[in-house]
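Students often ask what a holo structure prediction actually looks like on paper. The answer is less mysterious than it sounds. You provide the chain, you provide the ligand, and the output is a string of discrete structure tokens encoding the 3D arrangement of the protein together with iron/sulfur cluster.
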Amino acid sequence: MEFQSQLSKENNKIPELLVPAGNITVLKYALEYGADAVYLGGKKFNLRSYGSNFTIKELEEAVRYTHKKNKKAYITLNSIIFENELPEFDAYIKSIKDIDFDAYIISDPGLINVIRKYIADADIHMSTQLSTTNHLTVDYYRKSGVKRMNIAREIRYDDLRELIKNSEIEIEVFVHGSLCISYSGRCMLSKYMTGRDANRGECAHSCRWNYYLMEEQRPNLFYNITQESDGTYIYNSRDLCLLPELERLVDTGVSALKIEGRMKTESYVAQTVWVYRKALDLIREGRFDEKSKNSLVSELDKCSHRDYTKGFMFLDSFEELENNEDVKIKQDYKFIGTCLTEFSENGCSEILVKNQFRKGDVIEILEPGLLPRLFTVEEIKIKRKNYEFLTEEANPNDIVLLEGLGNINLFSIIRKKSNNE
Ligand code: SF4
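The corresponding structure tokens follow.
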């Protein structure tokens, strides 16, 4: 049965779309494709130790750029911090105090005072790492001056509605991206097996490895405890995708919808943001029907992903959370290029090639705010410093001109169906 919103259209405030930015390139794509705000990490305390992350100079540039676009930039400082690291945390906050972040995302409430020591009016957002599941916790942090709480992914929809109804500060929820087996990322598996602490941004994703049984007298003999021929997975979580329930989420009055993935590429972020922006626009216009939902979900299928789940929020059975039968990441489309120059003298944008494609291939161009369009490659011209030549195939790092394509948006994502070879 189609969901009926209980809010009038006029009151139906569209939440902020909050998007991850692992580097300045991704940040620019995120904003261009419709993010209202981005979250990013510096080189310290940010819970994504293996992302490229931003130097202090890059943070300054990122915030300047974001504000020029009239959007918001939040810094993540949500790693666990031990006693001996407090002086370093203090020094780090001092070093970034003049950067005009719109909010500071933390998970340790003790750090609020350190931030406020240098930035008296700092807006504080509490991270998902706190696993907040009720309005009493929200209220506790409200009294400490916190502006926004990210709610645990483990909450049920009806509880979320009640929590928001009873809360006086902004509430944010994750709508898309990878999930953890553990409660809101509080997991020791990776630390136990590899020494890499997920709570310090170093997760080795041990929950997704394939496992065998070994008897102690028979080392090196691995028994297959079959769930399937490749081995057994202790918990291979599907990826969260709440797009089909987006209207119900908007109806709760939630303030922000967050996409996971500060390690993701510009192609993943652009495509995902394009979809959620479109969905939110359709909800605003009262046109988010089954047909548009299905077509937007099929757009999400073009990004690399595991099978999707609606997560704990709309869970009917635990099986909906994992898929140990099919553990491979789905990658039906390849990211084959970006635009290097929007306008060129000969009226044809230069493309920087990321993955191989050939003459005769049908490629797809995604541009901010526009429907994706198909284009058949009839001529590939490779551009070198002083000369150009025609070729049958384009390879990574080539700069090419595609006859007939014309000028495309500088932030275009060019992709191709993987089996189109
Ligand atoms: S090992 Fe798996 S469950 Fe644990 S933090 Fe990493 S991704 Fe999450």
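Residues 180-182, 185, 187, 189-190, 198, 203, 205-207 surround iron/sulfur cluster (CB under 6 Å).
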